[in-house]
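ZP: hey, is the S-adenosylmethionine complex queued? I don't see it on the tracker
AM: it wasn't, my bad. submitting now with these inputs:
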Amino acid sequence: MQKNKLIDSFGRSLYYLRLSVTDKCQFSCSYCRGVESAFLPKRELLTFEEILRMSQILKKMGTKKIRITGGEPLLRHDIDELLKNLHALGINTALTTNGLILKNMIPKMVNVLNSVNISLDAIEPETFEIISGMPKAFHKIIIDSIIVTKKSGIPVKLNTVVIEENEKELVDLVDFAGALSIPIRFIEYMKVEQSKRYSVPIDIVKEKIAKARGLIKMKEKFGDGPAQYYKTNDGAVVGFIAYSSPHFCDACNRLRLTPDGKLRLCLILGGELDLKCMLRNGFSDEKIEHKISEFVKLKPFSHGNRQILEKKMNSIGG
Ligand code: SAM
Ligand code: SF4
């Protein structure tokens, strides 16, 4: 059996890769990329051939699951082909998407995707428009995508970043997800450098939902992320993700690969290994593997008190 070479110096197995395939996005979510960001030129993005080579190397080292994210990953042409190839390597494949062009792509991905997370920040189309910068009519398209994905049989979860604009809709979001038997996760907003936005503490979110619908802690986990799950009195499954919680890092199992080919050990703390540079300068698989195994030993136990991102979330992948 292959030895797992993705063990950090605290004994954690980093078997879960969040792979961002683009920083491009149709949306300009106020909590993520905002309106002013430029996108990377195409030549800076890893090609699918480079992504597959990296995935093969990482699979050999211990990667079991790859979540394709972005920016909006479905904007990468032929993304279903990439998923097919990753699936063929025996990797558990997952996708995080804003849902806008998901519906029509489900038939092509149904056999090669193990799970999908769809972002849904609002029940009211007007609130969706304010947060995403997209026309409110597009809200219905996302709702349709959620329903079609659920019907396809692919396990699906919803993601909501909690900000002041959607705070009043949280219970409605729980009811919507519960009615479709889809778990929903509330994610604490992480500050991006220079942002003056207020971060709603996840305990306040929990309290609000507990008061309205009741919350009982579940033993079961849904996926490999850091969410803690609860069930409401109506049976809706609700997860909470708090970057500021002291437990967020304890069982960290993640590595991140940015769209321009940098391997990151932590979402928040900097420190990147430039894999694209190695891939484009003739490094052998063995040499790259050696560099990665040295790098993972540097993973910090936690991000400590630092809770501000130095890059926008769409250029890391969340
Ligand atoms: N475009 C896709 C989407 O929105 O689902 C995938 C990329 S997005 C960067 C990945 C995840 O990061 C989403 O669940 C999004 O809500 C979350 N996210 C973005 N900015 C965030 C922030 N500042 N704090 C917390 N979560 C954030
Ligand atoms: Fe785009 Fe997702 Fe960021 Fe919104 S959260 S701007 S949909 S990448």
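AM: back. The first strand starts at residue 16 and ends at 20.
ZP: great, adding it to the tracker
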